[in-house]
Amino acid sequence: MKYATQRRIVEAFYPIMGKLIRRYMHYEVESWFNRFTTQVESAFTWQFWRNLFWGGGESTTPQLLCYIEEVFVIAHGSGLLIGSYSKNNTADMNMVAGMLTAVKSFMGEVFQNKGDLNTIDYAEYKIFIHDNFKYYFAVVVAGLPNERFKTHLRSLIDDFAEQEMPTDIDTDSIDDTMVASVSDKLKHCFENNEL
Amino acid sequence: MRSISKKIILTGSFCVGKTSLISRFVYQRFLLNYQTTMGVRIDKKTVALGDTNLNMIVWDIGGEQTQVRIPDSYYLGSSGIIYVFDVSRPVGFKDIENDIHFLRQRLPYAPIIVIGNKRDLVDENHLDEIRSLVGIPIDFFTSAKDGIYVEDTFIKLAQLLIHEP
Q1: Same domain, A49 and A107
Q2: Which of B40, B72, B77 has the CB atom closest to A171's CB atom?
Q3: Does residue B56 have a pLDDT over 90?
Q4: Which residues of B touch A81 (CB under 8 A)?
Q5: Which among B83, B105, B82 has a CA at the least distance from the CA of B92?
């Protein structure tokens, strides 16, 4: 009887505990990884010696344990999709774009537009939001992005916006030609770019 | 064939059947259990009109007593509006004119389709009386449950959005 009760309690709590433990582990690993990267970057690395004797060269910070799952370019306000790139094509991009915009708008209303929504955390994913004048980027990253990754990502997005995005975007101009063109460029940029 | 996307919003007081209308239009089914929409829900339906495929990105906005309480940002960038009221709830008729006026101020260039939903709950002979009580033109009396005039509502808006007669 006592054993059966214990088993029922374990069964009831197991999924909750599992989720909590996973979240805790994720948080701890992320914190550890950020500390580790900072230490490595400031320590006597091969890069340090190479720079000391020969100068220049690439950073030897270890490859990051994260990757880009999806990238969206979304019109402000309307939430219409201007372009997207996805590794897995898991959901309807138009609906995701709309929902992200609704969340973003709602947060803006709640906090009276005193700031911007920059990141959304969901399970092991982070969604980075980067605003431009008429549109914004939403980049879904799986894993453990550190500061260096975020800086590279921001710079990549800025370059993309400057070099690849059309300048004449308004609600009436977004058609399949524009979406296909921007999506192709996103694929080319994010598929071949090791952040 | 060109393809374009437009944001449309479906709005009106709570419990008038907005989500059921979308469910009928997009998924061809009627939801038996009522569930309040919290915030906003987004669906998509592609409509072929002439040489254009129109992706209707439908924002189903959670019902509020009046339109004034809905976050302004939800209206941004909307190309068209479907305003829904419940024909079986006369107490809500008095708000319709104010709501439409509010929507026209918010989105002066967006076409508005006004529909009275749940026509299956009232006598057919009663519809003319409702028309006179509401005081503004009503485009359709719909039934999400039976699928009456649901498709017509969205198609009419789609035609207005791509300026097709």
Answers
A1: no
A2: B77
A3: yes
A4: 5
A5: B83
